[in-house]
Amino acid sequence: METNNHSIETKNLSLWYGDFQALMDVSVNIPSGKITALIGPSGCGKTTLLRCFNRVNERYGNVTTKGEIKILGKNIYDPDVSLLELRKTVGMVFQRPNPLPISVYENILFGLRIHSPFGSLTRNQADEIVEEALTSVFLWDDLKDKLKARATSLQLEQQQKLCIARLLPLKPQIILMDEPCSALDAKGTLAVEELMGILAGKYTFLIVTHNMAQARRVSTECIYMFLGELIEHRETQALFETPEHPKTADYVQMRYG
Amino acid sequence: MNRSELIIQIIALATLTIACVLVWVVTTEVFHVEGEILSVPMGIDSGSDLIDRLYSMIPLLCVAMLLSIAFAFYIEEWLSETTWYYRIINQQISILANIPSLIYGILVICIFLFQVKEFLNFTLVLAIVFLVVPVIIRTTQSAIRGVDLSVREAAYALGANRWQVITDHVFPRAFPKITGGIFTVISRVLAIAALLIIVCELRTSIIQDVSSYEISSDVFVLISLALLSCVLSSFLQINRNS
What we know:
The structure holds two protein chains of two kinds.
Chain A: E1 6-17, E2 20-31, E3 35-39, H1 46-52, E4 63-71, E5 74-75, H2 83-89, E6 90-93, H3 104-115, H4 123-136, H5 140-143, H6 156-165, E7 174-178, H7 186-199, E8 204-208, H8 212-218, E9 221-226, E10 229-235, H9 236-241, H10 246-252
Parallel strand pairs in A: 3-8, 3-9, 6-7, 7-8
Antiparallel strand pairs in A: 1-2, 1-4, 4-5, 9-10
Helix pairs in contact in A: 6-7
Chain B: H1 3-30, H2 47-56, H3 58-77, H4 84-98, H5 101-114, H6 120-145, H7 149-157, H8 162-207, H9 217-236
């Protein structure tokens, strides 16, 4: 496999929270334009790994990282990397929908506003961008009359879609999702999964999930982690049907976890 | 409570005590050299003189409030919660903020009544700083902490830097509660001012040997303003959902 097919590459990545080692020598290549799922029991480091990729981990302090993370071929721990640019390229969707408590319209523009000089966005451009972003997550018809409404007043499903939509104006390459559906009902989950299916190809998705059925439904590749170690990384179908590692087998056949 | 917390508490209390003793020594001993006690009028003969002086303290009050708010943002946003100095500062602010304002009032009266004119302003400044700063810092801190973590996470993940997160999200969200804290402080200051005026007038009437004393209308105005700002502050500090 050539390297340019991989959006994210890590080499011997280890991470400590204080004395506790949360990731042990994780080396992984995430393919571009596909959906990759991270599965494993709670506390195995899935979310930690995910959060490494846009360096939001650092905010919690007391974190030590060793090893290499390359995003689109660039090591993100190089001193010349700007966090701003990194987070523009690598968007993140959280477990609980967390739209900013401002209007729907401003939510979508917020990312763009902080990344462009003040006043450089004309009213027409802004309107277009909002429409485009909302259309690509299929919210435009529902929300076109509610653009001024507070984003926190929407239904959860719409909020989560909005959280995806507000990443799009920044033209990210990679979208990280930390259990994006755990707060949604079956219908909302289905809608978000469909959306991911449609957006995959344009963006690289990396999704953490506890729901194995979901991992099977949406992802093309799947990574199983256990206690900070990467146990197995294969195509989803292969991982679920013929797991190589006994620990993976235990987990995917629900004997453990 | 574990051992390190106990040590932090003891250090906080000890440093505070030392600071207080120093202030006390400075105000009573050093300045006492030129002071004459009681019988000499001390530059303030009536409540209205005092009110004028209090008015002149308003700019100071505003500056103290703004600096306290800025300091609260600094310790909440820039200092890490695990460091020992954060914990000590936090503890000290906690202790100071919980001291009933009446204690400051009594201290002020004691220093106030027995000191000469030149140091009056100094005493007032000191009292105002002690009355205002800890409470404002405390309420601002809790207002900042009250801002939902998810809001910060969302903004940071979109690439906002610390300043953008603070100015665009944390401050607007925390603003009502910060104003609430300001009104709490205003009511504290007004109440102490009312008390000072009563003491001043009583003292004047004793010196002039007047047989009856009537509480002036200023006092009632101050007290009703204090009550009003209490109501405003509790109104502003009610938890609202985003």
